[in-house]
């Protein structure tokens, strides 16, 4: 009986220490620091019906610290889409901010890339050279607004790779990640 229990403990112990490729899956992340990969087209005042444009254009070939060759983020991640998040808020009657749930219909037709609620999706262009996003949010009501952008661009849904690329960026025309503006 002691031998059976000994073998059982040994078997369970070895089984717990052994893993398969699925169990040991870890995703490597490459982090890059970049400048002005997101741009907000600011202006002093907007009118109802105007558009607030957001843009992101960047090459699929990126400088990677410590390496002489450029990093091909498409080959590395196998992702045709990269994304970043943003949030549009409006000041309400009591002075608090409330988030606006954006739908595709809140954006102008056309442009580059795609939008999924508050996610800007930069798509690899037909020439397979750069990722592109350029859309205008239609400003439909008067009031005071605040746009907040998360300054991290990463491959959308992780692609089909075990490598993720995150690009930490500054935002052109903003000194911070927040832009407040009025619509008349």
Weakly predicted, low-confidence segments: 3-12, 14-24
Taking strands numbered 1, 2, ... along the chain, how are they ordered across the largest sheet? 1-2-9-8-5-11-12
CATH architecture: Sandwich
Shape: elongated
Proportion of residues in helical segments: 10-25%
Number of DSSP helical runs: 2
Query: How many domains, as an integer?
Result: 1
Beta-strand content: over 45%
Largest sheet: 7 strands, mixed, barrel
Number of strands: 13
Instruction: Report the span from N to C terminus.
Output: 85 Å
Specify the structural class.
mainly beta
CATH topology: Immunoglobulin-like
Computed CA radius of gyration, to the nearest angstrom:
23 Å
The helix/strand series, from N terminus to C terminus, equals HEEEEHEEEEEEEEE
Query: Could you tell me the mean pLDDT?
Result: 85
CATH C-level name:
Mainly Beta
């Amino acid at each position: 009986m002691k031998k059976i229990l000994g073998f059982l403990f040994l078997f369970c112990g070895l089984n717990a220490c052994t893993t398969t490729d699925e169990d040991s899956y870890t995703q490597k992340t490459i982090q890059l620091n970049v400048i002005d990969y997101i741009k907000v087209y600011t202006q002093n005042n907007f009118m109802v019906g105007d558009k607030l444009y957001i843009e992101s254009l960047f090459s699929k070939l990126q400088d990677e610290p410590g390496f002489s060759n450029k990093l091909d983020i498409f080959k590395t991640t196998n992702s045709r889409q990269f994304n970043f998040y943003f949030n549009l808020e409006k000041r309400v009657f009591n002075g608090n901010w409330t988030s606006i749930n954006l739908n595709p219909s809140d954006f102008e037709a056309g442009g580059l890339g795609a939008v999924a609620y508050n996610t800007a999706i930069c798509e690899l262009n037909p020439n397979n050279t750069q990722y592109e996003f350029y859309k205008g949010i239609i400003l439909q009501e008067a009031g005071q607004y605040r746009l907040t952008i998360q300054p991290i661009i990463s491959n959308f849904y992780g692609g089909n790779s075990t490598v993720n690329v995150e690009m930490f960026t500054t935002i052109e025309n903003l000194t911070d990640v927040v832009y407040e503006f009025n619509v008349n």
